[in-house]
Amino acid sequence: QVLDRGEKIELLVDKTEDLRSQAQDFKKQGTKIRQKMWWENMKIKLIAFGIIVLLILCIILTVCRDFKCW
């Protein structure tokens, strides 16, 4: 019984180490995905901001050309 109990304890220790390793891998993958999604979101925001700036610039240039601001 003592030997059987020792084997069960060893199995539990091995499973615990495997779970710890899997948890660390999961955390690393989650961090990588979070960073990737942040960059994707930032790219979209920068593109939208650039388009808005270009539209405003076009409007200002059109208005100044019509009223001869230069």
TrEMBL record:
Gene3D superfamilies listed in its UniProt record: 1.20.5.110
Annotated keywords: Coiled coil, Membrane, Protein transport, Transmembrane, Transmembrane helix, Transport
GO CC entries: cytoplasm; membrane
Pfam families: Synaptobrevin
GO biological process, one term: vesicle-mediated transport
SUPFAM superfamilies, sorted: SNARE fusion complex
Name of this protein: V-SNARE coiled-coil homology domain-containing protein
The organism of origin for this protein: Aegilops tauschii subsp. strangulata (Goatgrass)
